[in-house]
Amino acid sequence: MSRFTLPRDIYHGAGSLEELKNLKGKKAIVVTGGSSMKKFGFLDKTIDYLKQAGLEVETIEGVEPDPGVDTVMDGAKKMLNFEPDIIVSIGGGSAIDAAKAMWIFYEYPDFTFKEAVIPFNLPTLRQKAIFVAIPSTSGTATEVTAFSVITDYKEKIKYPLADFNITPDIAIIDPNIAKTMPKKLIAHTGMDALTHATEAYVAALHSNFSDPLALKALAMIKKSLVDSYNDNEEAKEIMHEAQCLAGMAFSNALLGITHSMAHKVGAVFGIPHGCANAIFLPYVISYNRKACEDRYADIARYLELEGKTKEELVDSFIALIDELNNKLDIPHSMQEYGIEESEFNEHLEFISHNAVLDACTGANPREIDDEKMKKLFICTYYKKEVDF
Question: For residue 96, which of 157, 36, 142 has the smallest C-alpha distance?
């Protein structure tokens, strides 16, 4: 039996943040990241709308990019002291991911992080609170997914927590919030969304429910990502919805080794997640095509790319990704990104082994072991052709 899970309610469109006025409860805690939501007035709006709903409000601010275990545990303690019945997170994927993890340990203080990282091993949530997610970026789609990525800085490993329990109850997709993103973030989050949709379409658990979402997201991203990067307001609105569709697809179909690799280099080398996905995706497609060339060819046909054979169509899709990376000023290899060769070689065994163990690897359409992962990383570093 398969499963398809989404938030109960998704509010979308300009001004949809105002839906917070209609929440029912006693106490709400708002989790957010750095200063951008405060700077642009969205944090104050969020608090004001919640107060208009008759809620007592506290905040947890300053969640860092790539949130760590300590941040999560500190936030959970604050929740235990305040006892909210609504958790609201507004900001980028990091803030929402951290809030999801805080939610777990607020409801189950004796649960451990080691237990939480086991896929689909969480206890039943919503015993104390419901969860509302409001994204400020157009890429991670964590507002509609069953995932949260948390970094264990002691082990230098990013862990994707995976469980349908942490799918938010309510998602608010307000494009006015996402229009504040800087250009580099538009590029990285946009390519993250493209990777989500691509991996979801070829992943082991893809279905007739997830496929249309993935394909529609890819078409919208192809049409609007570069224009969004170049400050077109309408394109920004389209991208904010496209990334959400991609999230719905991958939350149910799962992902693949592009994400496995990105999680590991993010923790070790500090490459932003979306940027890492953009670098790795063409190489991963070249590796996976031996197992699912027809699926990649389907994508190319849907996007009206050139090619008469499956091989030509997949080549066209890879070329499209390379072209997008050029237009978005994203490098094509880890070496181009600026990782020193000695540093890469020092960590190669470590990132290869841990990428194979990553929760996303199991849904990849082609099996991979440590040695093949190592060879794949080498290709992504030196910009070599994947021929194995």
Answer: 142
pLDDT exceeds cutoff 90 at 118: yes
Residue partners of 105: CB distance under 8 A and separation at least 6: 72, 73, 76, 111, 116
Total Cβ atoms within 10 A of residue 119: 15
Q: What is the pTM of this model?
A: 0.95
Beta carbons of 356 and 373 less than 8 angstroms apart: yes
For residue 308, the one-letter residue type is K
Q: How many CB atoms lie within 10 A of CB 111?
A: 15
Distance CA 332, CA 322 (A): 7
Alpha helices in the chain (DSSP H): 36-39, 42-52, 69-82, 93-107, 113-116, 175-178, 183-202, 211-229, 233-253, 257-269, 273-302, 310-327, 334-337, 341-357, 370-382
The burial class, CB within 10 Å (0-12 / 13-18 / 19+), for 357 is middle
Q: pLDDT tens digits, residue range 78-99? A: 999 999 999 999 999 999 999 9
Measured CA to CA, the distance from residue 35 to residue 90 in angstroms comes to 12
